[in-house]
Amino acid sequence: MAFLKRTTRAGQTRRASSRFIVFAVVAAGLSARSALAQTVADEYQVKAAYILNFARFVEWPSDSLPASSPITIALVGNDPFNGSLEQALRGRSVNGHAIHFRYVRWNDVLTQYQIIFISAAEEPHLPEILRLIGSESVLTVSDIERFSLRGGIIEFSMVGNRVRFDINRSPAIAARLTISSKLLSVARAVHEDTSR
């Protein structure tokens, strides 16, 4: 009888092990499929946090950002952040300025905002967007490829699985924006390119 119990327990243990292995294989398959979605979500959460920090380490001229007026950040085009940028900025303030957030279209008036993130979906309109902004005091940010070499100020890129950014100082200087040396020191590259 004791022998039968041991056999039954061994059988249960083997069945439990088999179930666990099947579960692990299925879970691995599901997590492999969701890993890319999770990585993209994490990428844009990091980018949202960076954008908030850009507001901390950039100074606008007083005629474009008077003391105690809000810093308004706009998202141009579709929302690759899936709401995480708006969430990261909600209720925040930076250097005595409340943070406001707006969704806008590429052909809206963009010069009223302090920071704009240009969605990659708006790449066909990029030359027009940058032309309309001109040398107004707007910090332009995007993850469009070569954005910082095409007249944008801060360009996000992925290096391995890390979010990095490049800065083009020439359009920032033209826009009368002062970028902190702390921010410049953590950029992957700092360009002095004036081409548009």
Structure description:
This protein is an alpha/beta fold and 196 residues long. The protein has a single domain, classed as 3-Layer(aba) Sandwich (Rossmann fold). Helices cover 41% and strands 22% of the residues. It is built from 5 helices and 10 strands. The protein has an 8-stranded mixed beta sheet with strand order 3-4-2-5-6-7-8-10. Strand 7 and strand 8 form a beta hairpin.
Topology readout:
Elements: H1 2-56, E1 58-59, E2 71-76, H2 84-89, E3 93-94, E4 97-104, E5 115-118, H3 126-133, E6 139-142, E7 154-159, E8 162-168, H4 169-174, E9 178-179, H5 181-186, E10 189-191
Parallel strand pairs: 2-4, 2-5, 5-6, 6-7, 8-10
Antiparallel strand pairs: 1-9, 3-4, 7-8
Q: What oligomeric state best describes the polypeptide chains here?
A: single chain
* CATH level-1 class: Alpha Beta
Give the overall silhouette: globular
Tally of extended strands? 10
Helix segment tally = 5
**N- to C-terminal distance:** 86 Å
Radius of gyration from the CA trace? 24 Å
What is the typical, i.e. mean, pLDDT? 84
What's a quick, concise take on this entry?
The protein has 196 residues and is an alpha/beta fold. It contains 5 helices and 10 strands, in the order αββαβββαβββαβαβ.
